[in-house]
Structures are given as structure tokens and as C-alpha cells.
Write a structure and sequence with these properties.
single chain
Length: 64
């Protein structure tokens, strides 16, 4: 192999790595936003009354 071919292969590998890093960063950002949303809604949801009782849910899914 020549140096040019090696450089082209290295560039391709770096490009693939950059794409994978971008995907990982996007997933990390999504998880961070989800955790923040859960944390910020926790107090609000804890204060809200339950719409369904455990009995209602069991009747819907027919649990024993």
C-alpha cells in the first residue's frame, strides 16, 4: 500500500468513528433530557391525585 491509500483508509476510519461518537453523544443528551424531565415532573406528579386505583388496573389486565 502507498501512503495515499493508507491516509484514505485512516480518513475513512476517522469518519466512521466521528459518526459513532455523534450517535453516542446524541443518545447521552437524550437520556439527560429524559432524566431532567423526570426530575422536574416528580413533585408535580406526586401532588396529582391517582386517576385509577390498583383495583381498576387489575380489572383491566385481569391480574390475580
Amino acid at each position: 500500500m502507498t501512503i495515499e491509500v493508507d491516509l484514505k483508509e485512516i480518513k475513512n476510519l476517522l469518519s466512521e468513528l466521528n459518526k459513532k461518537i455523534d450517535v453516542l453523544l446524541e443518545e447521552k443528551e437524550t437520556l439527560a433530557v429524559m432524566a431532567l424531565a423526570e426530575k422536574s415532573l416528580k413533585d408535580f406528579l406526586e401532588k396529582e391525585p391517582d386517576i385509577y386505583t390498583v383495583k381498576d388496573v387489575k380489572a383491566k389486565v385481569k391480574c390475580s
